Amino acid sequence: MKIIVSLVVALCLAACSVVGRSEVEIAPYQVLKADSSQGIEVRRYEPMVLVSTSMAGDGRNNAFRKLFRYISGDNAGSNNIAMTAPVLMAGEPANEGTKIAMTAPVFMSGANSEPRMAFVMPKHFTLDSTPKPTNPDLLVEEVRDYTVAAIRFSGTLSQRNVQRYSQQLQQWITANGLTAVSEPVAAGYNGPLTLPMLRRNEILIEITQ
How far is Cα 92 from Cα 106, in angstroms, rounded to an integer? Predict the structure, then answer.
């Protein structure tokens, strides 16, 4: 079982505070079943657009930087924007890309033997409206019918914690008559200033019922 874990996920949401409060949009989902005794939920996510890049070769920090540059304007700026008045012209027009708000969680997985990191786009983006990356290393894709079992825990996304909670989640999936159809995915929600005991971390495994 390949599980990709990186402390860089702690850098993903700089808008978070030391007390765990996040100011960013969270990918929306519906809870289908909850086991509060183990902190496990079965969820169905709404359709979402992911922008991802490989963590192989250049490493996890470089993968994060590529994605962060993308949402900071390193994209084709393909959004349609309604014209307003007046039109101001001063010298040559700037060719700036579209700035995109960061959302949570940041996904990391090692499916298909290639470790990847993905940012979830804000919910109003579709596959067609998402700005095209200028970096060829980035992949834009839409995810639909994404049903997962998710286990939530605090602390850090250390290798030990990810292995522990992945095993616990897989055992729960089997015991509840469900079938896992993906490798575990680590999801981080908080920034580096958040106290470990107040952080929200999750392991997601796609399932069929």
Answer: 37
Whole-number Å distance between alpha carbons of 134 and 125: 18
Q: Minimal CA–CA distance to 207: which of 131, 145, 152, 121?
A: 145
Contact yes or no for 66/138 (Cβ under 8 A): yes
Q: Which residues contact 102 (CB under 8 A, 6 or more apart)?
A: 12, 13, 15, 24, 71, 119
Q: What distance in Å separates the CA atoms of residue 75 and residue 70, rounded to the nearest whole number?
A: 6
118-138 pLDDT, tens per residue? 888 888 889 998 889 989 999
Residue 198 DSSP label: G
Question: pTM of whole model > 0.70?
Answer: yes
E-strand spans in 83-145?
Answer: 103-104, 106-109, 116-120, 139-143
Mean of pLDDT over the chain: 75
Tell me yes or no: is domain 7-74+98-208 CATH 3.90.180.10.
Answer: no
Q: DSSP assignment, residue 197?
A: G
Side chain identity at residue 174, one-letter code: T
The Cβ of residue 139 has, within 10 Å, a number of other Cβ atoms equal to 13
Amino acid residing at 158:
S
Rg (CA), the chain: 18
Cβ neighbour number for residue 165 with a 10 Å cutoff: 23
| 57-91: pLDDT as tens digits | 766 778 888 888 888 888 887 542 211 111 111 22
Phi/psi at 142 (nearest 5 deg)?
-105, 140
